[in-house]
From TrEMBL:
PROSITE patterns: HTH_ARAC_FAMILY_2. Keywords: DNA-binding, Transcription, Transcription regulation. This is HTH araC/xylS-type domain-containing protein. One of its GO terms (molecular function) is DNA-binding transcription factor activity. The lineage of its organism: Bacteria, Bacillati, Bacillota, Bacilli, Bacillales.
């Protein structure tokens, strides 16, 4: 099966009365990911082959994500998931943003994570592929909404769901930024482990690379890639501080960097190598 590379409708808006839009969609060989601040949009996430484990940060128990199982994760919920076993963990995902929070709650996509046991995830993949086709360069808000709702209807037809118990209060969904630079920062935070070219980012927001850099500098004082490097290092520092058992290689993989290069940049930023950071009892300030 050919993987569907990530597509995003980063420049989408709530036009024509559509109460939601698809933010990202695709399939991938899933690496380990820890999202200390959650993801900015709501996620539907299912296993195509292999299997993995999911948990909310702060919980000890892991939920198994095997074939024919779908996971819904609300926006802003800190969590992590990791592959399990020798077989590659292939997943499909679609994330979405609502115009008004709660519009999809009656479908089971509210403020708490849910696990859905499915009868045929192959049917979901076929529908996900249609959502993907109408995303990115082929984005059409009505076609995208139509295919996404078809996917949700199929989930409703197939699924038996179990609520995942949540420690503490439910997360508050984040708001959608309203500037090109704001949309890029949101996207970089959500995909901190991935690498993007300037041309990729510019195409997502509908500007030329030169215009994108100019708009971003006006708002944040740095280029998009300088910003990404900054949030990667700060995210790694927080990870090392809160999880002292994490290795340098694991921290580097979490933010999508090569370990030696990561260690050099980390020392330049914080004055110590990553292996010493978590033992200092300081936030590096």
């Amino acid at each position: 099966m050919e993987l569907l590379q990530l597509r995003t409708n980063l420049n989408a808006a709530f036009a024509g009365g559509v109460p939601f839009y698809v933010y990202t969609v695709g399939t991938e060989k899933q690496p380990p990911i820890t999202r200390l601040n959650g993801f900015s949009a709501k996620q539907l996430f299912f296993t195509i082959s292999g299997q993995g484990e999911f948990r909310q940060l702060g919980q000890h128990n892991w939920d198994i994500l095997k074939p024919n199982r779908l996971l819904y994760i609300p926006g802003g919920l800190p969590h992590e998931y990791v592959p399990k076993g020798r077989e590659p963990w292939i997943t499909g995902y679609v994330t979405f943003v609502e115009k008004e929070d709660g519009w999809m709650e009656s479908w089971g996509f509210g403020r708490k994570p849910q696990l859905f046991d499915l009868k045929d995830s192959g049917r979901l993949y076929a529908l996900l592929e249609k959502v993907w086709f109408h995303a990115g360069p082929c984005y059409n808000e009505w076609k995208s909404a139509e295919q996404f709702l078809a996917l949700c209807v199929e989930i409703g037809k197939q699924a038996v769901h179990d609520e995942i118990r949540s420690p503490g209060s439910p997360a508050k969904p984040s708001r959608d930024p309203d500037t090109a630079a704001g949309r890029i920062t949101r996207f970089l935070h959500d995909h901190i482990e991935r690498n993007f070219t300037l041309s990729d980012l510019a195409s997502y927001v509908g500007y030329s690379p030169k215009q994108t850099v100019r708009l971003f500098r006006q708002e944040f004082g740095v280029t998009p890639h300088q910003y990404l490097q900054r949030i990667r290092l700060r995210t790694a520092a927080l990870l090392l501080e809160e999880h002292p058992g994490v290795t340098v290689r694991q921290a580097a993989a979490h933010i999508g960097m090569e370990p030696v290069y990561f260690a050099r940049l980390f020392r330049r930023e914080f004055g110590v190598v990553p292996s010493e950071y978590g033992t200092r009892g300081t936030s590096g300030s």
